[in-house]
Design goal:
By secondary structure, this protein is of the alpha/beta class. It is built from 7 helices and 5 strands. Strand 3, helix 3 and strand 4 form a beta-alpha-beta unit. The radius of gyration is 23 Å and the shape is elongated. The termini are far apart. Keywords: DNA integration, DNA invertase, DNA recombination, DNA-binding. It holds the Pfam family Resolvase. One of its GO terms (molecular function) is DNA binding. This is Recombinase family protein.
Length: 184
């Protein structure tokens, strides 16, 4: 059985999710597990866990891109171990990799290492760029949103509203409400 897994990081990436689903169905997937959740918190990826639980011997898990499945080489190996221990295979469409073959397994390890290397280089460049911008006084960071609402917070507090009610009304956290009130 061919089992597909599609994922986007945010809820507003519907076009990307639809494209993945289309490609997975085109590849012949009998069942597709879909979710919209960040890969940073791997414990939140319930549909991936369900797909890995669903896989049986002889099945193939298909993803459109490697980054839709795993965040790091270590995480990729964890997933691949689960798949392999069940007697199943992994296929990545855009890379043409199929772990049911020895060459596919080799290529997956190589490409996974290259992908992780690329990500670490990109993050290093990003950190360097931020440091340079800060040194030149061009990087200000994110503008504080809660403190710009402090007058409204103070007014609602004066009207007898609770911190939770104020937070909901203004659209900030309860902790931010307390910070605004502490400066009051």
């Amino acid at each position: 059985m061919l089992i597909g897994y599609a994922r986007t990081s945010t809820l507003d990436q519907t076009a990307g999710l639809e494209a993945q689903q289309r490609d997975l169905h085109k590849a012949g997937c009998d069942k597709v597990f879909t979710e919209q959740v960040s890969s940073v918190d791997v414990t939140a990826r319930q549909k991936l866990a369900e797909a890995l639980e669903f896989i049986r011997e002889g099945d193939t898990l298909i993803v459109t891109k490697l980054d839709r499945l795993a965040r790091s080489v270590a995480h990729l190996h964890e997933i691949l171990t689960v798949i392999t221990n069940k007697g199943a295979a992994l296929k990545i469409l855009d890379m043409g990799i199929d772990t049911s073959t020895p060459t596919g397994k080799l290529m997956l390890n190589i490409m996974g290492g290259v992908a992780e290397f690329e990500r670490s280089i990109m993050l290093e460049r990003q950190r360097e760029g931020i440091a340079k911008a800060k040194a030149e006084g061009k990087y200000k960071g994110r503008a504080p949103t809660a403190m710009s609402q402090s007058e409204k917070v103070k007014q609602l507090h004066a009207d007898g509203k609770t911190a939770v009610q104020i937070a909901e009304a203004v659209g900030i956290s309860r902790a931010s409400v307390y910070r605004c009130l502490a400066e009051y």
